[in-house]
Amino acid sequence: HTYTHTHTHTHTRGIDLVCSYGMPGQGGLDLVAREVFGKIIARGKLTVAGIIPMPLNCRILEFGKKVDFASLKDSYELAAIPSDQAAPAAKLLSRILRRNVQPLSHFAAIALHASNPNIHPARLYGLFSDHREGKVYKENPLFYETFDEKSAEWAQKVSDERIKVWREIVRKMKIGEVNEVPQLKEYVMAIYGDQIHDKSSLASVFSTNDGFKGFRCPMKRVGDGWTLNFHNRYFIEDIPEGFCVYKGIADLAGVKTPAIDKILGFFQKFMNFEFIKDGKLQGRDVGRTKAPQAFGITTLDEYINGTSRISQSKL
After folding, report:
1. Burial of 181 by CB count in 10 Å (0-12 exposed, 13-18 middle, 19+ buried)?
2. For a Cys staple, 126 with which of 150, 163, 190, 274, CB 3.0–4.6 Å?
3. How many CB atoms lie within 10 A of CB 209?
4. Residues 290-307: tens digit of each pLDDT
5. Do 68 and 214 meet the contact criterion of CB atoms below 8 Å apart?
6. Which residues lie closer than 8 Å to 124 by C-beta, 6 or more apart?
7. Residue 249: C-alpha distances to residues 8, 136, 244, 286, 300 (Å)
8. What's the pLDDT tens digit per position in 42-81?
9. How much is the pTM?
10. What is the residue-wise DSSP string for 87-125?
C-alpha cells in the first residue's frame, strides 16, 4: 500500500504547486502517477515523490487504537517525477522528518532499491524452499532473529541481480550513478545504524537488529500447527508489487536473473498466479503486478523516458 502526505507551496504568482509523497516509493508508484496525473505533472502543477524506506516499523495491536512501535529509520532516499524536483522534494521532507533525505536521479533507482522485495521473498525461500501444498509446520518461527546463512545467501543473490540491472540502466540510458542503488547489507546498516549489534555479516544485520525484533513468519494456524498464509502481504504485496518489478525491469534491460526467477517460479504456483513464464515476466497474471509490462511498457526507453501510453494520462 502507498501512504501519502501532500504539501502545497503557494508561490508569489498565486499558483499552487503540490508535492505528494508516497511511502514507500516502491510498488509502481511512479507508473500509477504517470498514468493518472501525467498531464498535471507535465504542466508543472504536481510533483510525485517516492520515499524509501517506510519511516516506521509497526504492527497493529488493536486496530484503530494501538500499535507496537519497533523502530524509526535513520535516513531516507527519494525519487520524483519530474526527476528534477527530487532535490527540493528531499529538502522539504528532510525538514518534516528531521532526518537525512538523499535525492535519487530516477524512479528506477527506487524500484530497484534494497527493501522488502529483496528481503521477504529471499528469506521465505531460505526458510520454506521445501514447502509443498498442505504442509503443516510445528511452529511459526521468528522471521528475523533466526535469519540464517541460507536465507542470507538467497538475499545476496537477489541483491546482486538488481544491482546488475541498475548498472545496465546507467550504462545504456546515461542516467544516474551506479552507487544510487545499494547492496542489501549496506542499506540495512544505513537505515538502522546502532540498532544493529553485529554488523559482521548479512545474516547478522537482520538477526541482531532491534528494529526487527518480534516479527514472525506469514503463517496461519491449522489445528495444532502452522502453514504458510499466501494471502499475507509478504506474498500478495511484496511479490507482485516489488519482486515482479525487479524482474520486469530486468527483462527490459536485458539482464538475466536466475535467483529471482527461481524464487518467483517457486512461490507463484502456491499463490495460484503465473507471473513468470519461459524465463520472462510474461505469464497470464502480469497485469496484476506493478511491473512496467503491466502498464503496456515494452522497452527500456519507454520506461526510463516516459514515452509510452501511460504518458496519455487522465488528468
Report:
1. buried
2. 150
3. 23
4. 999 999 999 999 999 986
5. yes
6. 217, 218, 234, 267
7. 32, 35, 9, 13, 8
8. 888 899 999 887 766 666 778 888 877 666 677 889 999 9
9. 0.88
10. HHHHHHHHHHHTSEEEE-S-HHHHHTSSSHHHHHHHHHH
